[in-house]
Design a protein that fits this description.
606 residues, alpha+beta, Heat Shock Protein 90, Ribosomal Protein S5, domain 2, Ribosomal Protein S8, Chain: A, domain 1, 3 domains, eight-stranded mixed beta sheet, five-stranded mixed beta sheet, 20 helices, 22 strands, elongated
């Protein structure tokens, strides 16, 4: 019979290290979090061989007293929590007290520190029987890790090439640097300085790390509801790429990979992304620490929300409303999918700082500990109610301002300007105060109809248009059976379809928004959807796809000639329509070519 024995302390620490220390970047992350928790304002990172040979972190934090150096290297020793209540309200990045002990069990670790107000610095090696000895250090703490996995060669075999491990380390530094723009960071690898970040505001720090192009291609986001707030930037859908590593989400300044948040991002971008493009975001979520459990995994990259549904809806609606901002209400810098780059010298990074953001209350009363997330979501929902569409259901030229020769000098002209002409029956050419605007008329009209159909369907106010002569088309017995079975659902969508013979169906009425489309083609696509998915799916995920198909068939077709008043009517409706920058398939509907770029083409002023 096997004998039960206690594991040696070293083996216990090495087992724990398997959860905390996955690679050099894991060590670096834990040590950097300790430096930030210590109140550091400047942190220097030195790496050798991708962090495998050496990781040295130097900070100017509060330091550690001589008599506590040995205690800091033991398992489950921490200054950050003492009771369960502290754990439930933890506001620091680290709290487990396992990092230093775990690293010391699989690497050679040296800890040097000088406590604030102390006259001397002390150094301690993580070795059995080692004693603190004097060290030369002005202030703060230096943690030096050498030869990762020197005593566990089997685990060292799983490490990747030096370049790969360094890339993970650099990413760990950048993530933490984004959360603390008030702290200076520097990174050196193999004696070469890779970057040095000075203290700055949040937007400038994000631009330094993700690039000015990301800031110019993204839309700023700032929404608060009770104890919940979200700040940062979300990529404009027309600027999205297929890269899958562009999502940076932080919860209380902690980088997380959360399935609830990831799903909310996908849902918010569902209607506006083309093909396999991915939403790039840099979002900072602030929530009462009591409402989120950060003690889910030793690596602390996973969290659990007390009310996951409320958090999902909060993030989904915040992003959706930001992406849905009509052109006339959006800042042209972020709303216009311009093909010309914005001059960085003209950019002012003036977005509000959200590193230490304290959200204002937007509801009455005090939230209890057990129900704040749900109440906060209700407050948020009230603050972001959908705005009803008030524009007319067709391209009505009567209400659209007309182009005048003075419009080119009118800096108060509409964002999309005034129509000038039509190109090949496909594109509308317009001029605004900045230059030339090109519009894909079919894609733009498709989005307008789609948004109107969604609004009408949600409010159950789908206006119908009776046809003077029914549109008759051939149908098989399954099509006829589907029409008879789903007659009520078809009526809710604005269609009246009835059998006119053993192999014929007739369309007697269509939604008024789609009266200019082909009734037979609309009916065929609708019946095909009903046969494949049934009515039960119509009210959920497939509904929007069905409405998008209807809008595509009902939009103005290419090669159709429009008058200038009709083109201006299209531009004005685009300015009032949510998500007008993308069609139902995620393709851009318009772009802008500023006069500066036109002048460059013709070498004007050169």
């Amino acid at each position: 019979m096997p004998t039960i024995t206690r594991l040696p302390d070293l083996l216990i620490s090495q087992i724990a290290a398997g959860e905390v220390v996955e690679r050099p970047a894991s060590v670096l992350k834990e040590l950097l979090e300790n430096s930030l928790d210590a109140g550091s304002k400047a942190i220097q990172v030195h790496l050798e061989e991708g962090g495998i040979k050496l990781i040295r972190i130097t900070d100017d934090g509060c330091g550690i007293a001589k008599e506590q150096l040995a205690l800091a290297l033991t398992r489950h020793a921490t200054s950050k929590i003492a009771t369960l209540e502290d754990l439930e309200h933890v506001g620091t990045l680290g709290f487990r007290g396992e990092a230093l002990a775990s690293v010391a069990s699989v690497a050679r670790l040296t800890l040097s520190s000088r406590e604030q107000g102390s006259s001397h610095a002390w150094k301690l090696k993580a070795e059995t029987g080692a004693e603190p000895e004097p060290a030369a250090l002005m202030a703060g703490t230096v943690v030096e890790m050498r030869d990762l996995y020197y005593n566990t060669p089997a685990r060292r075999k799983f490490l990747k090439a030096e370049g790969t491990e360094f890339a993970h380390c650099a990413d760990a530094v950048r993530r933490l640097a984004m959360t603390r723009p008030d702290v200076a960071f520097s990174l050196t690898h193999n004696g070469r300085n890779l970057f040095q970040l000075a203290p700055s505001d949040s937007t400038r720090r994000i631009a330094d790390i993700l690039g000015d192009d990301f800031i110019r291609a993204a839309r700023p986001l700032e929404v608060a509801a009770g104890p919940l707030s979200i700040s940062g930037f979300a990529i404009d859908p027309t600027r999205a790429t297929e890269a899958k590593d562009g999502q940076y989400v932080f919860v209380n300044n902690r980088f997380v990979r959360d399935k609830v948040i990831a799903h909310a991002l996908r849902e918010a971008y569902r209607d506006v992304l083309h093909g396999s493009r991915q939403p790039a975001v840099c979002l900072f979520v602030t929530i009462d620490p009591a409402l989120v459990d950060v003690n889910v995994h030793p690596a602390k990259t996973e969290v659990r929300f007390r009310d996951s549904r409320a958090m999902h809806q909060f993030i989904f609606h915040a992003l959706q409303r930001t992406l849905a901002t009509p052109v006339q209400a959006a800042n042209a810098e972020f709303a216009a999918p311009s093909i010309a780059a914005v001059n960085p010298e003209n950019q002012a990074f003036s977005a509000p700082s959200f590193a230490n953001y304290s959200p204002p209350l937007q509801h009455q009363g005090t939230l209890g500990v057990n129900e704040p997330a749900a109440a906060a979501y209700l407050a948020f929902a009230r603050a972001t109610q959908d705005i009803g569409n008030t524009y007319s259901p067709s391209l009505n030229p009567a209400s659209a301002p007309q182009f005048t020769p003075r419009a080119e000098a009118d800096h108060n002209s509409p964002p999309l300007g005034y129509a000038i002409a039509q190109l090949h029956g496909i594109y509308v050419l317009a001029q605004n105060a900045r230059g030339l605007v090109l519009v894909d008329m079919h894609a733009a009209h498709e989005r307008i109809l789609y948004e109107k159909l969604k609004t009408a369907f949600d409010s159950r106010q789908v206006a119908t248009q009776n046809l003077l002569i029914p549109a008759v088309f051939s149908a098989d017995s399954l099509d006829i059976a589907a029409v008879e079975e789903h007659s009520e659902a078809l009526a809710e969508l604005g269609f009246a379809i009835a059998p006119l013979g053993p192999n014929q169906l007739g369309v007697r009425s269509v939604p008024a928004l789609l009266q200019s489309g082909d009734p037979a083609a609309l009916a065929r696509s609708l019946i095909a959807e009903l046969r494949e998915h049934g009515i039960s799916q119509l009210a959920t995920a497939r509904r929007n796809e069905l409405l998008a198909t209807m809008a595509c068939h009902g939009a103005v077709r290419a090669r159709r000639l429009l008058t200038v008043p009709e083109m201006n009517a299209l531009l004005r409706q685009m300015e009032e329509t949510e998500r007008a920058g993308q069609c139902n398939h995620g393709r851009p509907t318009w772009t802008e070519l500023p006069l500066v770029e036109l002048d460059k083409l013709f070498l004007r002023g050169q």
